[in-house]
Known about the structure:
Blueprint: E1 3-11, E2 17-20, E3 22-29, H1 33-36, E4 41-49, E5 62-69, E6 79-86, E7 89-95
Antiparallel strand pairs: 1-4, 2-5, 3-4, 5-7, 6-7
Amino acid sequence: MNRRIFRYELNVDDQVRGLPAGKVVHFADYRMKNITGECNRVEVWVEAELVGNSLSFDFAGVQNVQIFSTGQPIPDGADHLASCLAGQFVWHLYRLPETPAGDS
């Protein structure tokens, strides 16, 4: 029984991020923004599988994700994982297709 839920804070930008492979169980506006003043962050919770019985958080794989705004072009083959309302914006989290070895 090595499945666990992990929480990540992501900047809303055009960067590709690596998350543990697994099911996205929740995607939400950054809950600390009223304290920190930050409004360009979101949170994502992922149910991931750990390798072995260690607590070192070695994950059974990685998925590349990217956040898109409404109306922004989405790459072919990307899979929608979740959307969230953050202030006046709606952000969309997508898993990007794997790039074959040797491709850039």
